[in-house]
Amino acid sequence: xxxxxxxxxxxxxxxxxxxxxxxxxxxxxxxxxxxxxxxxxxxxxxxxxxxxxxxxxxxxxxxxxxxxxxxxxxxxxxxxxxxxxxxxxxxxxxxxxxxxx
Length: 101
Prior knowledge:
By secondary structure, the chain is an all-alpha fold. It has helices at residues 2-33, 35-38, 64-70, 86-100.
């Protein structure tokens, strides 16, 4: 019985550990590609804040992924189409959206 309890506890911790590892990887992805302009805490720097106010260049006519892939040279936003794949873009979008709330 005791062994079953221990095994149950270990197995229930696996999804949490996987979620934490995935979150850490997304945070590392953000730090690598975004933090130098948008700040380590997403509050802005050279680039605007990603957590305060409305996004000026993303909306009904342009998705987050499209904006990040193609950039916006006029605003100083580089294109990351060669640096990030679709899963990474989606992970970053979710990460940033969750930080906004």
